[in-house]
Write a structure and sequence with these properties.
162 residues, mainly alpha, Four Helix Bundle (Hemerythrin (Met), subunit A), 5 helices, HepT-like_dom, HepT-like domain-containing protein
């Protein structure tokens, strides 16, 4: 595949957005855990904000993955399990076309974060901050490994501009 500066610029923006959201979530989660007293409303606001930042960070990672899968594979998965299938596809090599885009370790972390995002979106009044808190370190780890994997893949495929 030839260098594709516009594609990589779009992916880079997604990666940067994910990094911002995930780092902000981690910083706030650390402060919440270490911090002093907050009124019930302020604590709830902070807990929801952390969940939303994780949700948005995952969404930005998924957007970067969609861009790359569409550009390299020529299409995206479809169906009810679309989001899980997108990750599975990216983690698997396609014979004669490309190596895996992400490692199985990164894929596992993405699946865990995807599961949290789904639970958050469908909480309907039952938001459980403990799910967000346990996913903060997952998000921090996956943001780093995802960026590394995507850059290595783009380099191996000649997508990165010179």
């Amino acid at each position: 595949m030839a260098a594709h500066p516009a594609l990589w610029a779009d992916i880079q923006r997604d990666l940067d957005a994910a990094r911002t959201d995930i780092r902000n979530a981690a910083m706030r989660a650390d402060a919440l855990q270490a911090g002093g007293e907050l009124s019930g409303d302020l604590r709830m606001d902070r807990e929801y904000a952390i969940g939303l930042m994780l949700h948005n960070g995952y969404g930005a990672l998924e957007c970067a993955l969609e861009r790359l899968v569409q550009a390299v594979d020529g299409g995206l998965p479809s169906g009810a399990a679309y989001h899980a299938e997108l990750i599975r596809r990216a983690a698997a090599p396609v014979a004669g076309l490309r190596p895996a885009m992400i490692t199985s370790e990164t894929a596992g972390r993405l699946q865990k974060l995807r599961s949290f995002q789904h639970a958050l979106r469908h909480a309907y009044g039952g938001y459980d901050y403990t799910r967000a808190a346990e996913n903060v370190p997952v998000a921090v780890a996956v943001e780093d490994s995802f960026r590394t994997d995507m850059t290595a893949f783009a380099t191996s495929m000649g997508i990165l501009p010179e």
